[in-house]
Amino acid sequence: MRKLDPALIGFDIDGVVADTGGAFVRIAREEYGIRSISIDDITSFEVEECIDVDPVIIETIFSRLLNDPLKAGLKPMENAMPVLHRFAAEAPLTFVTARPDKEPISLWLRHFLHPAVFSRIRLVAMGVHDNKFPYIKELGLSHFVDDRLQTCKALSREGITSLVFRQPWNNNGHDLPTVDDWQAIHGLCFD
Ligand SMILES: [Mg+2]
Hints:
By secondary structure, the protein is of the alpha/beta class. Helices cover 38% and strands 12% of the residues. It has a 4-stranded parallel beta sheet. The protein has a two-stranded parallel ribbon with strand order 2-3. Helix 1 packs across helix 2. It binds magnesium ion.
């Protein structure tokens, strides 16, 4: 089968490129002394619905990850950066995030990407969770990787091949194509 052209695929950031769930659990443990939760307990995208943690603490941790992801210790998912650099050798990287502010996540990407790769990225920060489709269409993508099921389902209805990046909060209730990790994403485009 012919492999996918790397120019045609785009990526969500949190929960796909960035290990946002892992950072949440670590900050909760190290800074708030909450030892009772693991990433597998986060079975819903609405975190406050699935773990018994003060919503104010949940909100505070997510604000930190949004406003200063480097300082908050947000790390890339395993193999994300090597695979993104491999893709970047073929085409500029494209990211579409629901984050409200572009600057903090742009600085985060700049930290982990080679300067020549970073200088060519296309980064859209939408500020809302819904309606990624117009951006993805405008950017000329046919495939998009996201960890939020609702987003994947909506994109799929619009004719985008949406790939669910497997996380504990998106395991159930769909029959969309799934990628388990960054090696699987690499395999979409390369042997
Ligand atoms: Mg996400």
